[in-house]
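Format notes (please read before filing issues)

Several people have asked whether sequences and structure tokens are stored in separate files. They are not. Every record keeps both together, in the order shown below: the sequence lines, then the token lines. Line labels are part of the format and must not be stripped during preprocessing.
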Amino acid sequence: MFNYIGIDVSKATLQVYTPPIKDENISIENSKKALISLYSKLKKS
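Then the structure lines:
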């Protein structure tokens, strides 16, 4: 089974759709620090 996420990229933010976690939309800053935090969250799931 495969898990997918959707990411809509803009200059300031990333809209992340995460059906494997809680079927939710997350808005994060478009920065290296925020991406590392998102990766950690997804890795735990």
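For reference, the curators noted about this record: The helical segments are 32-44. The chain has a mean pLDDT of 86.
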